[in-house]
Design brief:
22% strand, four-stranded antiparallel sheet, 24% helix, DNA-binding, alpha+beta
DNA sequence: CTCGGAGCCTGTCTGC
DNA sequence: TGCAGACAGGCTCCGA
């Protein structure tokens, strides 16, 4: 489910509910989540709600002297949801994995497939991903050219890596390559200057539009209030195998690369 | 470095 | 209706 636009949507919808709140209790219900050690959260105040790559980043104040601030990075993976409720007791408890009770409201983590993770850090920097955020000023034409240089990987797989650019996943990789008119099978390092420019513009355009539409909901994705996004109505190729390309009416194809589906137009992507 | 495959989990959908 | 198999938006690990 969640790629950069969905995680951004979750963070934006959580921020006004969580910022400034004080934690009462943290409870963890799923033994899989317990592989991470859980710190004492009671009494800490939430001072930051944001996004780091594909993870929701929540900053907590120090608890007392000598006990510094804490950062929680939640990775939603495929089916994770962070849901805020004024009264958490009224939620269904199906797939409830963890719950943070606040002085006002409750933050619940639901995760059907249980791939989601909680990671705790002492410093925000430690929670930062290795790659560049594609919407940050750090990604310009020069930076993109440097990252791509020499890579023999196909460009679809390259976009999915999180060690160079963070935040792209299977849906937006297909959509971006379509918007850039670049074939997913191309060697990443082989893109020329014009193609790199189109790729950069496509990355920005596709991601910003998806954020503006509150993310793509194919089935599981929800924001902090349980609401679906609407960007699925704007997908051009993803999930549209056999349908006509919106640009040239050629039939959209699906191909498996690195065990993931890639959707593309064989006529207008080169 | 890259690739393919298995694996982590659960639910849904398809076809026989 | 029942059941097996394929598939799903994430990522990691292993061996070649």
């Amino acid at each position: 489910m969640p790629e950069l636009p969905e995680v951004e949507t979750v963070a934006l919808s959580l921020r006004p509910r969580l910022t400034g709140r004080t934690v009462r209790t943290l409870r963890v219900y799923d033994p899989l989540l317990r592989r991470s050690t859980f710190p004492r959260l009671g009494g800490r105040r939430i001072v930051h709600v944001g996004r780091s790559g594909k993870r929701v980043l929540i900053g907590f104040s120090a608890r007392s002297a000598g006990d510094g601030p804490l950062w929680l990075a939640v990775h939603l993976r495929m089916t994770g949801r962070l849901i805020w409720a004024a009264d958490g007791n009224r939620d269904s408890r199906a797939h409830l994995r963890a719950r943070i009770r606040l002085d006002r409201g409750t933050l619940s983590f639901f995760d059907t497939r249980r791939f989601g993770t909680f990671e705790w850090y002492r410093e925000a920097d430690a929670a930062g991903p290795a790659g560049i955020d594609p919407l940050s000023p750090g990604l310009g034409e020069d930076a993109l050219a440097r990252l791509l240089r020499g890579s023999r990987q196909n460009v679809k797989a390259w976009l999915l890596r999180q060690d160079r650019l963070v935040g792209l996943g299977n849906i937006y990789a297909s959509e971006i390559l379509y918007a850039a008119a670049v074939s997913p099978a191309r060697e990443a390092g082989s893109l020329d200057r014009r193609e790199r420019r189109r790729l950069l513009e496509a990355i920005r355009r596709v991601l910003r539009r998806a954020i503006g539409n509150n993310g793509t909901t194919l089935s599981d994705f929800r924001n902090a209030h349980g609401e679906s996004g609407s960007n699925q109505h704007y997908l051009r190729v993803y999930g549209r195998e056999g349908q006509p390309c919106p640009r040239c009416a050629t039939t959209v194809l699906r191909e498996v690369q690195q065990q993931r589906s890639t959707y593309y137009c064989p006529a207008c992507q080169h």
